[in-house]
Structures are given as C-alpha cells and as structure tokens.
Write a structure and sequence with these properties.
The complex is a heterodimer of chains A (about 110) and B (about 120). Chain A has about 110 residues and is mainly beta. In chain A, about 0% of the residues lie in helices and about 45% in strands. With about 120 residues, chain B is mostly beta strands. Chain B is globular, with a radius of gyration of 13 Å. Classes of the chains: A mainly beta (about 110), B mainly beta (about 120).
C-alpha cells in the first residue's frame, strides 16, 4: 500500500496568516495519463471530509481561491494564503493512483 | 441537489452481520465509481471498497476482503455494503462517497455517514 505522510500534525494560525501543509507519498502518484492522483480534503468538526483540491492542483467547485495545491511525484503542498475562521478542521491528503486509496494522518488547523 | 444518504448502522456483536445502504439523489449512481470509506472517531479515514455497478467492477481493502460485499441497485439508485463476520475493529462511521468523473477518482460528494459499533 502507498503510505501518505503529512506534516505538521497540527498548526495554530492567526486569521489572515498563510499556512502550509506538506504531504509525501511512499511511491509516485503520477498516473499513466501524466496527472498526479493526489487530493486534499478538509474535515470540519462533525462533518464528512469535503474535497478541496483534486489532481494535485485543481480547486474543487466552490472552493475559495485562497486554497492552492502544488507538487508532483511524491511531494505535495497545500497552501492557504490567508486563513479564515471557517478553515478550522483537519486536513487530509489522499492518493487515488491505485487501490487501496490511502489517506495521510491529518493536519489539525486551529485559529 | 446531488446528495448521498447512508443508513443501516447500529450496534452488533462480533460475528454478526449488517447491511448498509447509500441512496443517491441528483445523479445516476451507476455512472460513477462509488466508494465506502470508514473512519474511527478521532482517526483518519480508511478506504473500504468501491464499485462501478454499470460494469460490475468491485474492489476491497484487504482487511474486509471475503467478509464485506458491495453491490448496487440501479432501479433504486442505491449502493449497499453487506458486512458479515463483523469484528470489533470494524467499529467506525461508514461514509459513502462518489468519485468524480475526470477528477482522477477524487471523492467529490460524501454522505454524512452511519455509525457501526461492534461490541460484546
């Protein structure tokens, strides 16, 4: 199975500050079509995960442009350009290049 | 509105069975790869199974292979997860989720989950 490793485990930020979360995979996430099969999710308290970024760098529908995803191969980063109060929760990366789909351990973002 | 609603969770003893349902609205379930993902409260999500019911394709995590069966009913626009020989370690919130078309299997729609507790 592909192991996904996130850092840091937690992040305490001030509203308006930038935040960055790292995700590393044990194998390349580049699919045969050249795309990186790496997604980012935010799970707010009491809710299911919600998709933020797909294929490494594409924002999902309705996701504010303060969220951006970069990276390729085995190293990926989620950046929030100016954290808002509604961004609190646990962020997960997930690889979808092969089954079993696997998630990172999560990064808890607090204000 | 595109929506997924799970049901069927509950409290059972080890070795017993449960069948979870996931009703889709706003889209045709058979046109997508549909997933089951579970999450122990306080831990990260874990992928369980997936199905592309139009083609009859299914895949399972090793930890549930041989015990869980995923299926779909296009007439009811519903996906099921039959869970047999349940173990204490199967205790979790079970979510169904849709894999986006053209999105590299990103999970773009999730249900709110149903809780399964396996305890003696």
């Amino acid at each position: 199975d592909i192991v996904m490793t996130q850092s840091p485990l937690s992040l305490s930020v001030t509203p308006g500050e930038a935040a960055s979360i790292s995700c590393r995979s044990s194998e390349s996430l580049v699919y045969s079509n050249g795309y990186n099969y790496l997604d980012w999710y935010l799970q707010k308290p009491g809710q299911p995960p919600q998709l933020l970024i797909y294929l490494g760098s594409n924002r999902a529908s309705g996701v504010p442009d303060r969220f951006s995803g970069t990276g390729s191969g085995t190293d990926f980063t989620l950046k929030i350009s100016g954290v808002e109060a509604e961004d609190v929760g646990v962020y997960y990366c997930m690889q979808a290049v092969e089954t079993p789909l696997t998630f990172g351990g999560g990064t808890k973002v607090e204000i | 509105e595109v929506q997924l609603v799970e049901s069927g969770g509950g409290v059972v003893q080890p070795g017993e069975s449960l069948r979870l349902s996931c009703v889709a609205s706003g889209f045709s379930l058979g046109s997508y790869w549909m997933q089951w993902v579970r999450q122990v409260p306080g831990q990260g999500p874990m992928w369980v199974s997936r199905i592309q019911s139009a083609g009859g394709y299914t895949t399972y995590a090793d930890s549930v292979k041989g015990r869980f069966t995923v299926s779909g009913d296009s007439a009811k626009n519903t996906m099921y997860l039959q869970m047999n020989s349940l173990r204490v370690e199967d205790t979790a919130v079970y979510y169904c989720a849709r894999a986006a078309v053209g999105g590299g299997d990103a999970l773009d729609v999730w249900g709110r989950g149903t809780m399964v507790t396996v305890a003696s």
